[in-house]
Amino acid sequence: DTAVSQTPKYLVTQMGNDKSIKCEQNLGHDTMYWYKQDSKKFLKIMFSYNNKELIINETVPNRFSPKSPDKAHLNLHINSLELGDSAVYFCASSQAGVAGVLYNEQFFGPGTRLTVL
Amino acid sequence: DQQVKQNSPSLSVQEGRISILNCDYTNSMFDYFLWYKKYPAEGPTFLISISSIKDKNEDGRFTVFLNKSAKHLSLHIVPSQPGDSAVYFCAVYNQGGKLIFGQGTELSVKP
């Protein structure tokens, strides 16, 4: 199955803990993303990597650290989890357009629902 | 400061009729627009896109219309089917290559 996959699908943890979410795509894309969908259902970009290099870094607390070991993987590590981090996190991938312009559709994973207690 | 707005949080349509989902944006420099569909507990799925050099793009039952002067786009689904019931997100690429999403419209197609 060609797709974007994420693990785990659900993550329940205590405040202050450190957790990671993994993402893998087998679509051969060179760009990967992390999005956060908050309680109001807005989907907002957090990070984007192109060929393992960070190209978009939104105003996200530095407790969030993305890591891309290769262009098929983009993991998200979160330190010192807070209640406000509870959300659904989506990974996505796309093929970059000409001259790095990202005008292509993005393919999303199924999401990871993070609940911080 | 929402750059992409979907003012209708929900829409209910009878099976076989037309569904029209609307989206407004604020920046006239935006030039690539997409619609995504999302089922519960799944990720958004790309549906159809349009660039600013066009005013219409059609794919089967789905047609997207772009009105640049009004900074408005719409998605038409004809005929609507119960399986179309989902949340529909409008999204636009800004000049920095970021995809900005609207807040979504939940479509319910009744048999």
Helix and strand element order of chain B = EEEEEEEEEEE
User: What fraction of residues of chain B sit in β-strands?
Assistant: over 45%
Please identify the structural class of chain B as seen in this structure.
mainly beta
What is the overall pLDDT average of chain A? 90
Radius of gyration of chain B, CA atoms, in whole angstroms: 13 Å
Low-confidence stretches of chain A: none
What share of the residues of chain A lie within helices?
Answer: under 10%
Overall pLDDT confidence of chain B: 95
Largest sheet of chain B: 6 strands, mixed
According to DSSP, the number of beta strands of chain B is: 11
Order of helices and strands of chain A: EEEEEEEEEEE
Radius of gyration of chain A: 14 Å
- Kindly report the oligomeric state of this protein: heterodimer
Strand content of chain A: over 45%
Q: How many DSSP H or I helices of chain B?
A: 0
Write the layout of secondary structure elements.
The complex is a heterodimer of chains A (117) and B (111).
Chain A: E1 4-7, E2 10-13, E3 19-25, E4 31-37, E5 43-50, E6 53-57, E7 64-70, E8 73-78, E9 87-94, E10 107-108, E11 112-116
Parallel strand pairs in A: 2-11
Antiparallel strand pairs in A: 1-3, 3-8, 4-5, 4-9, 5-6, 7-8, 9-10, 9-11
Chain B: E1 4-5, E2 10-14, E3 19-25, E4 32-38, E5 45-51, E6 56-59, E7 62-67, E8 72-77, E9 86-93, E10 99-101, E11 105-110
Parallel strand pairs in B: 2-11
Antiparallel strand pairs in B: 1-3, 3-8, 4-5, 4-9, 6-7, 7-8, 9-10, 9-11
List keywords for this structure.
heterodimer, A: 117 residues, mainly beta, 7-stranded mixed beta sheet, 4-stranded antiparallel beta sheet, 0% helix, 54% strand, B: 111 residues, 6-stranded mixed beta sheet, 5-stranded antiparallel beta sheet, 55% strand, globular
Report on the structure:
The complex is a heterodimer of chains A (117) and B (111). Chain A has 117 residues and is mainly beta. Chain A has no helices and eleven strands. In chain A, strands 2, 4, 5, 6, 9, 10 and 11 form a seven-stranded mixed sheet that branches. In chain A, a hairpin with a 5-residue loop joins strand 4 and strand 5. In chain A, 31% of the residues are buried. The model of chain A has no long low-confidence stretch (mean pLDDT 90). With 111 residues, chain B is an all-beta fold. In chain B, the strands form two sheets. In chain B, strands 2, 4, 5, 9, 10 and 11 form a six-stranded mixed sheet that branches. In chain B, strand 9 and strand 10 (99-101) form a beta hairpin. Chain B starts with a strand and ends with a strand. The relative contact order of chain B is 0.34. Chain A binds chain B through residues 4, 33, 40-45, 48, 55-56, 58, 90, 92, 100-103, 105-111, and chain B through 32, 34, 36, 41-46, 49, 51, 87, 89, 93, 96-101, 103-104.
